Structure formats: C-alpha cells, structure tokens
Amino acid sequence: MDTPALHALVIRSCSERLTAAVVAPFIADGSHETFYDAFARHVATEFIENRMPYESADVAMSHLFVFACVEGEGDLPGYAREIFEAFDLGEYIHAGDPSGTSSERKYTRPKIRRLLETAPTE
User: Fold this and answer.
1) How far apart are CA 83 and CA 44, in angstroms?
2) Percent of the chain at pLDDT exceeding 90
3) pLDDT tens, 22-55?
4) Is the distance from CB of 83 to CB of 36 less than 8 angstroms?
5) In this structure, are residues 85 and 41 in contact, taking their beta carbons and an 8 Å threshold?
6) How many Å is the Cα radius of gyration of the chain?
7) What is the DSSP letter of 30?
8) Contact, 76 vs 69, CB < 8 A?
9) Which of 27, 51, 54, 110 is such that its CA lies 20 to 30 A from the CA of 93?
C-alpha cells in the first residue's frame, strides 16, 4: 500500500472522519480488511515510535472503527480490531489500578508492541 498516501490519510483521520470517497483509492482491489489492517498497522507504528501521540492515534482508530461499521462491512475485523481495542484500553481507568496510573502506558503500549511483533504481512 502506498505509504505516503496512507500516512496522509492517517494524519487526516486524526481530525476528521473517514469517508467512502477518501478511502476508495485504498480499496481498489475490493479488500476492506487489507486496508483496515494497513491503516491500523500504520497508526500503531507511528504511535509506538513516538511520532503520533496517544490521543491522535486513538482518534484515528476510532474513525476507522466508525467507518468500518457505518460505511464498510458492518464491523472492524481481525488485526485492525485488535489494534482498535488496544487503543481503547487506554481510554479509561481500570478497576484495581491506583490513582495516577496511565492506562496508555500500562495497557495500550505493551499490547501494541505485541501486536506489531505478530503483525500479518501486507
């Protein structure tokens, strides 16, 4: 997948929702899941390499989830779903965690690292 174009789309998705028109060039072969996985892998990589703050990565993944559910195939499948859920873990304080615990550091970062290590090939 065209990395500069995908990167531009990811950055754009940090501030606006994804639409069928902007996603269409990435789904030329008809595979939504291939696009979802590439998008999620890119967001995860940018985040884990400290080129994208948690808040921006979380918004980008939330916009991907909404797109998949509303304009895509009704759900965010597989690997992309796992990346989405990893960012979701950083959104709230978990039961039993002491005050001041960073859910992003405790839950999201380790899970994203594991998911990137086992990423499906493009």
Assistant:
1) 7
2) 75
3) 999 998 777 899 999 999 999 999 999 999 999 9
4) no
5) no
6) 14
7) S
8) yes
9) 51
